[in-house]
Amino acid sequence: MSDELDFEGPASYVGRSVSRPNARRLAEGRGQYVDDVVLPRMLHLAFVRSPYAHARILRIDTSRAAAMPGVRRVATGADIAQICKPYVGVLTHLAGMRSPPQHPLAMEVARWQGEPVVAVAADTRAEAEDACEAVEVEWQELPAALDAERALEPGAAVIHPELGDNLCFRRVLDSGGVDEAFAQAAVVVEDTLHFGRHTGVTLEPRSIIADYNPADESLTAYHSGQSPHMMQAILASRLGLDEHRVRIVCRDVGGSFGIKIHVYGDEMAACALSIMLRRPVKFIADRYESFLSDIHARDHRVRARLAAGRDGRVLALEIDDLTGVGPYSMFPRSSAVECNQVLNLTGGPYRHQQYRATGAVVFQNKNPMSQYRAVGHPIATAVGEHMIDRAAEAIGLDPAEMRRRNLIADDAYPCQSSAGMRFEALSHHACLDKLLALMDYPRLRAEQSALRAQGVYRGIGLASFIEVTNPSPMFYGVGGARIAAQDGCTMRLDASGAIIAATGITEQGQGTETIVAQIAATALGVQMSCVKVLTGDTDKVPYGGGTWASRAAGIGGEAVLQAGLALKKNILQVGARILKTDAAALDIVDGRVVKRGTDHGITLTELARIVYYRGNELPSDFQPELVVTRHYRVKDYPFVFTNGAQGCLVEVDPETGLLRVLKMWCVDDCGRVINPKLVEEQIRGGIVQGLGGALTEHCRYDERGQLLSCTLADYLVPMAGEMPDIQVAHIQTPTRTSLLGAKGAGEAGTGGAPAAVLGAVNDALRPLGARVTSLPITPDVVLAALGKI
Amino acid sequence: MNDAQEALDIELEVNGERVRRRVEARRSLADFLRLDLGLTGTHLGCEHGACGACTVRVDGAIVRGCLMLAAQADGARVQTIEGLSDAGAISDLQNAFVLHNALQCGYCTPAMLIAAQALLEANPEPTREQIRAFLSGNYCRCTGYQSIVDAVASVAAYRKSSAGPR
Description:
The complex is a heterodimer. Chain A is an alpha+beta fold. Chain A is 28% helix and 24% strand. Chain A has a domain at 2-31 and 486-632: Aldehyde Oxidoreductase, domain 4. In chain A, the strands form seven sheets. In chain A, strands 3-5-1-12-9-10-11 form a seven-stranded mixed sheet, with helices on both faces. The radius of gyration of chain B is 16 Å and the shape is elongated. In chain B, helix 3 (91-99) crosses helix 6. Chain B has two domains: 3-80, Beta-grasp domain (Ubiquitin-like (UB roll), Roll), CATH 3.10.20; 90-161, DNA polymerase, domain 1, CATH 1.10.150. Chain B has helices at 29-36, 81-86, 91-99, 109-122, 128-134, 146-161, and strands at 7-14, 17-24, 55-58, 61-64, 77-79. A five-stranded mixed sheet of chain B has the order 2-1-5-3-4, sandwiched between helices. In chain B, 36% of the residues lie in helices and 16% in strands. At the A-B interface, helix 1 and helix 17 of A face helix 2, helix 3, helix 4, helix 5 and helix 6 of B.
């Protein structure tokens, strides 16, 4: 059937910027987020959280709280531990990684400010919060390990004494000839970069309703999440329930960005309390709790050295990454993947052969750090591009020319990077050329130098990047985590002639349900409006991984395509019986089974009517099957890499340190583009998140481990007025690992933007002899680089 | 019981309907709309007036539902996304948001639409910079804002070209 697929033809929805059918509902305020769901006898949870970064719990007195109006249960860590087993955030394929068992609520010791300690279930959230005030906890504050760079020093407070020190994971990658390459290099540049902590700020906070039904020992969790089957497996195993009696329902999700793929103690406590109290329990994090307990991201110190020849050819790259991940590695995906990615990806677009990378992941008494949108990519790309810019400057080459001389040639694939990453087919030069044309790079340079003469400091930054998408089982499954790398689609032709497609990938606003409908309609030859898509319910969709790591379109989309083609084949077999011809002579065109090249045929509505109601009209030796399921996993590569290039234009005020991003450009190659509008919006939204982390967003702690940025007045999320217009264009190199040819696009913007803006700021500051190496690039960072503070 | 938990009787108009309720003094307008009236299109993103997700109209003015008490809305006329949608008052904006994909997760969207409507009433022909400045009280974490600006600008142009009442 595949030879009939014509993604370029007029009947194809693939490649078209169709609008999202489910957007109308959201625009009318008719979405259904978890907090909108109200169940009979439902209780509301609030938490007493640790006020200290590190403290022993000497005594908890819940008696006064338990007696307050509306309070139904006050539960300590020990109470919850009776119901919920602890968990360990370690992946076995990251050799040597360790993290101690973690309980939903702190047991004897609290290890970060904000760790949940006591849960109060009451008739209303307000009553639960009132009672939290009445819980008495006697604390003994302990010395805290806060600074990741000192967490391994002798004398540092050891957070888990049973581990001996604060090391979570260490890795070394070495191609073997790095020292020789540096010894022979004409040019060696080195620098140390710092990346602050930021966080996801999903506008809808983390949310769950746990509804335990003791009559059939079932648990239904209405959850704001990205990976329903992962949560099903975890809740079942931790709570001692049969997995098939645990149902996860993810309806509308108000942003996720990787924040909502992790297991959080407060959410586990909600499930445990529902079992204890035999009634529904709702927990909706407020914004303060979000800042204190949603995973934070980044927090790296990277030392880097680059060796190059006089001609600009990079000979070798060496990096040393240190990252602080809080007191526990997050369950179940761990907190070491980001460091691992930094090692795997830094310098990945370039063809140097020699590379050495060391990484250390350390525990500290801060909120846990783990995977957030573009895991590791912003660090890897910023470090790699910064070093390329440094080398270009040292040699006297234009940054664009420096990249041209070092990017892997577009005809060199398949090939492998110096870190051992396998690339199927990338297009760095095509993307860079298109980017420079979009930017009108020579004109921008001329304008820049003209403005400098007038005392205006503009800078131009470039970033070539790679992105890990479509992960195979080598990402998590191989490390023992019960997170599916495969995904499935069950598709059926209903009695009305409608197509129902149920898929394991999830919708958080990216347009998952839209592209599923586009692919299904294209595979079958029907109108998209005939297709209904089901997502986010473990009782109703095939087993799958969900939406993360830019996997939904590439992996889930291929399963949809294969299901659509299989269903079409079955439909044509029915059509052949009805029209008394060979199935090979038939096709489906605009919802009708027709003889090829003719208008003669029947509608799918009529065909379905015959199959479901008037089977007597079919031959007695023929049984139609109008429901099919197909699955797909990536088999040929560990990941299917994408690539692209970003450009950034900034203006810096050397007097105030304030900067303004005037314009961003991105050329992205995510393989076959299913819906250009949706891809462009993923890129734009991703770039703005990348710019936020690079410029304004910062989880700031004081010297006692108190988080200082706990409100949206202190933690600065990008606003419309300070963000630029972003021009996006595509290069399409479809992957041959699937028929659909789609790769991921969700993280490219976030992965590349910090590098582009860092390069642009340093380009602006170069005539002033200043250089920033610390993100976020706040005004004080700029002024410090200029020696003004 | 403290003062904040003291109950007050209020009467107001919400989306054209008369509503009488007894509320705690501390009940915010946003909680009142969501919990007492089931108007869940009004969303809570921060509960301290920064993100704008709870924006509703009170006597025509756009206000943060999380910063106003329900008791303060006694006697007022309140409009939420549900009422504005059903009345068709912002259908052109909603169409444009869908067309331009000016929403992803949709959590900020009802409030963003209400803010955009207020802007266009006050300034029917805003520049892109004016749109960006006015909507800076409403955070969107998904779109990067450009498509929202495009959608609002397109409606401004549409309203100008389609002379007379909409």
